[in-house]
Structures are given as structure tokens and as C-alpha cells.
Amino acid sequence: MKADPVQIRVSGPARKPRVIARDVSSTGPVLQATVQHQAGSQEVRKLPSTYEELVQRSPQGSVFAHRWWLEAVAPGMHKILEIRRNDGVRAAWPVVYCDGDGARHVCMPALTQKLGILFAPSDAKPPELQSTNQELTVELLDQLGDAASFRHNFHENYTDWLPFYWRGYQQTTRYTYVLEDISDIAAVWNRLRSNHRRDIRRAERLGIRVRDDLELARFLELNRKTFTRQGRQPLASDELIYRLDAACCSNAGRKIFAAVDSQGRVHAAVYIVWAGQTAYYLMGGSEPDLRASGAQMPALWEAIKFASSVVRRFDFEGSMMPHIEHTFRGFGAKQLPYFSISKLPPPPASLSGFVKASMSFRWKKMQRRLAPIFGRR
After folding, report:
1. Together in a domain, 48 and 173
2. Which domain holds residue 64?
3. Which is more confidently placed, 107 or 231?
4. Backbone angles phi, psi at 212, to 5 degrees
5. How confident is the model over 129-147, as pLDDT tens digits?
6. Coil, strand, or helix at residue 27?
7. Would 8 be classed as within a structural domain?
8. Do 194 and 323 fall within a single domain?
9. Whole-angstrom distance, CA of residue 197 vs CA of residue 192
10. Domains identified in the chain, total number
11. Cβ count within 10 A of residue 291
12. What value does the mean pLDDT take over residues 186-207?
């Protein structure tokens, strides 16, 4: 969930043609193309040697799956399940466990849109690939074992949840919005809805300018004010955000884009992080009394423009909230479904068990709501 109707995603620079270290000039164009194709197939079949390489090469890889990200958002509470074949990693599953009642609860950590199972790239035909991936999923489920509860968001490129269905899990379809190719920023601008372009130009006429030097502490003020205005709790504590920010600066890239008027007042800001071929809109915030300026639009647009210089793809991280979903679509983003898979414990068999479970749930909910307050003292 986002704090503001502003979010993002991007991808890395276009991949350069692979150079074959062999003189094939005398073989002609047909044989030359064949040699290149065979070399590419061999590269795909070679399994990643480490988990981090799998994250980088897997169709289901994302910034959220890296070990450094998991350690920042869930220190000491995550585990990587792996399946190795020969000398490579065939599949892996980063799993996060939540504090609970002494039982194991699989959950999604704060500020982490998706995790899920990652498969190594393969050039197998679709039927064989589906069968193999189902077998790998079953094997990883066996490694996971039983959990008191389970809630997990999967990457949009994970498209077959049948092994979970066969074991009694449930699935809800959610959506993210993605600009698949932002390399031509003029083309991206032309795909914006006319009212989005109008709002951006209007903010500029009001003297709104976008800067990228806002301090994290000031950004967090805007972020908190947004949640307060919406009557919601912040998605993460300040401590976690500072820890994650440091990790992003050390291992990937991050920037804050702030829309500021001629008086130096910050109207709105967005926080993006990028790694590999994609940039993600992670957080946003705005000054409640200055929202009429529409400054979120130019801040987001400048973030997309910058992202086009470092990646190729921009992920707004989606939202199921009508006004936010509407904003993302207006940027010309493509709607992509992804699975939110869950499994809840069976209901208590007795009245006393129900009362005990209800009291435990309310106590944990109160702890979560009070934690950010006492954490800032």
C-alpha cells in the first residue's frame, strides 16, 4: 500500500549484443546466426552459481529478493530455501517469518511488495518448463513445512499457483502497474493522459520545481502526515526505514524527488529505489495543506525521467485503491496481475478457544499500533 497516489518502476539499459570470440566471417550470415543462437542457449542452460546471481537472472527476481534487502526489513527473521542441481541453483524461495505466539507465521515484511519463488532461466519448451517448475514448487513447499499462517505475495512472472491450490492454499489476484520501456522518455510523455500532462504543466506555472536533495528526515515527516490524514498507521517504523535507506544506498540506488515552491515549501515527495533493470516507487508523502497544487504529479514525472537514465523499466508497485490505481493508469502504465497466496489456521473448535484467539489477535494488533509510537521515544 502506498502513502500517496504516486508510485514508480523502471528497467536497465538495453542489453548489448553478445560478442562471439570466434572468427565466423567466412561462414556466412546463416551459420553466424546459428552460432550466436547456440551460444545464447548454452548461457541460459548454465545455472546461476549463487543465490544472488539467481536473483539477478531469474524472471521472478526483484530488488526485494536480495539478501541485503531482507536483512534490512527483517533482520534475523528470514530464510532462503534453495534447490541446487549439480553446481547451480535451480530455484529458491526467500521466506520471512513474523513474531507471533510462539508459532511460525510466514508473512510479508514492511515496504516489500513481492517475494515468492524464483526459478532459474530456462530454454525448455512451455509444457516441460511448467512441469519442472511445478515439481520445484512442491519440493520447496516440502522444505517450508507447516506454518501457523501464511501470507505471501509473488512476482508477476510467477504464473502457476496450482501446487499451492492442491495443498489447500488460497489465492487473491492483485495488480501492479508497470512502464515496461522508459528508454524513450518523449514517447512515455506522449502516452500520459492529457489531464496528467495538464496537471504537471499547471504545477510548473505555479512555480513548483522538483529537487533531489531532500533529507530523509524531512521526507519521513511528509510520509507520516499522509498516513495521519488518511487515518492509517505508517507502513514501517523510522528505524526500519533508516536501516533500509542505508542498505539501498550501499547496494542499489535510491533518490528522493521533492516538489518545492518559490517560498521553499515542500509540497510533495516520492522515494524510488532501483536495481537491475527496474526502478520501484517505494514511498510517497505530501503536505496536507498544500495538496491542491497537484505537486505529486511533477515529482513523480521527474522520478520517471531520472529512472529512464539508469534503468529501462518502472514499477509503480500497484495499488488496489481506486484513486491511486487511476493515477498510475494515467501515466500509461500496464496493469499486471500477481498472486497473493495465503493459508489461515483452522478456526477454534470451542468457544473458549475462540475467545482466547480473539484476545490474542487484539493484543497483537495493539502492539503493532503502539510500536511506532514508543519506537520514536
Report:
1. yes
2. 42-177+341-372
3. 107
4. -125, 30
5. 999 999 999 999 999 998 8
6. helix
7. no
8. yes
9. 7
10. 2
11. 15
12. 95
Per-residue pLDDT, 26: 34
57 with 77, same domain: the answer is yes
Q: Is 84 left (phi over 0), alpha (psi -120 to 50) or beta?
A: beta
All three cell numbers of 298, joined, read 511533477
For the chain, the C-alpha Rg in angstroms (whole number) is 23
Nearest to residue 331, comparing CAs of 139, 216, 196, 136? 196
Contacts of 70 (CB under 8 A, 6+ apart): 78, 94, 96, 109
- Residue whose cell numbers read 508459532: 103
- Cα gap 149→323, rounded to integer Å: 31
**pLDDT tens, position by position, 266-281:** 999 999 999 999 999 9
H or E element at residue 83? strand 78-85
Q: Is the pTM of this model over 0.85?
A: no
DSSP 47: P
Do 363 and 257 belong to one domain?
A: no
Residue whose C-alpha cell is 528522493: 256
Q: Look up cell 507471533; give the residue.
A: 100
Q: Is the pLDDT of residue 235 over 80?
A: yes
Do the bridges between strand 278-286 and strand 313-315 make them parallel or antiparallel, or are there none, so unpaired? parallel
- Find the mean pLDDT for residues 233-238: 89
Q: How far, rounded to the nearest angstrom, does the alpha carbon of residue 49 sit from its chain's CA centroid?
A: 24
Burial class (CB in 10 A: 0-12, 13-18, 19+), 64: buried
